[in-house]
Amino acid sequence: MQTANKKVINGWAMYDWANSVYNLVITTTFFPIYFLGVTKAAYGENSVPLFGRTFKNSALYDYTLAIAYLAIACLLPILSSIADSRGNKKSFMQFFCYLGGTACICLYFFKGPEPVVALGVTLFALAAIGYVGSLVFYNSYLPEIAAPEDRDRISAKGFSMGYIGSVILQLIGFGLVLYFSANGDDTSGPRYTFLLVGLWWIGFAQITFARLPKVAPAVKEHHANFFTEGFKELRKVAAHVATMPVMKRYLWAFFFYSMGVQTVMLAATVFGKQLLNLDDTKLIITIVVIQIVAVAGAYLMAKLSATYGNFKVLIGVIFMWIVICISAYFIAEAAEAGANAELGFYGLAAAVGLVMGGIQSLSRSTYSKLMPDTRDTASYFSFYDVTEKVAIVIGLFSFGYIDELAGMKHSVLALIVFFVIGIYFLFAALKKEGPATKPIEA
Question: How far apart are CA 425 and CA 431, in angstroms?
Fold first, then answer.
């Protein structure tokens, strides 16, 4: 196949620009800081009463995300199969985009002095469902618009645009926080930022929706309702994946290392806030630095994969993640002992940025290269995205549970187990694939 023209490629990558602001502003920076702040101000401690139980506020944040990802993991396989059979995955992508964007806009109404916690966590969960739901259909366009030899580069382009766009809105939000805080208002800045995230996400997504091509349905003549056809498509793809030994091993590897990668990324701000007691300004600046470094990381890993192959580069990157987790534990130990651990945290943040951009971009393009030439792209990518989201559910629940039992520094250390298992399966996939295989080493 030939790679689509520049207009289509840029239009596809623009969705990363549009929706990455959710991932940075809502899940990584402003919302966790805001959520921890307003709940502590309302209840005096880091404990939040909800549904007849008292939760540690940082753990409740983890649990809410985990539940949202579990819900979408149950829905996506059948929805993606329906989208393939009917050729309407752009419509599904639009629905989840508007759901997530609207939920972000409504987070403006989650405010103190007595915040409605149920409202906040519900909107937060809906925003996560919208983000994840739209992403599987977005990702599934990659093998349809890019030739195998261009997929690492184009995947990196998408992630890089996402990092740049999210940094821009992050700085705007930071300006709003400083402006309102200078006037004695510590809540309006973040809430206006939530509002802007939704408008940015929905607004820039229109460029993507206008430029993405129409997709031919996998089923030309429909003899059953869309649910029945969707299940047939799902069974067909599942049976095919079962006969692909390299893809199976890669999905297991992706499943385990995603437990660690995604949990670190989603919990980094809470780690800095609670263990190191960094102020909000320093945290926001740190996250901006992570995003900027991640742009370089995405392109660096794409370059390295062209020389060494995707699997070998992924193995090297995961070893770096293990070092990051060990370093985070000792930084937390130093902070608890009364030492100034800020410099170590900033160095750790730069390392996270470098490997974060690389592993996300390379994971997506690696999977797209392993896929067969098929019209069932959304169904195939639902395996990829559901694998990641179930991994996040397990990772976040494990992180939150260990946090409540033994403290967050032990949660970070426990993630190493997931990375080690992921490396094992990557070696297994590399061995099964053999040195002469072409789909991976484009």
Answer: 10
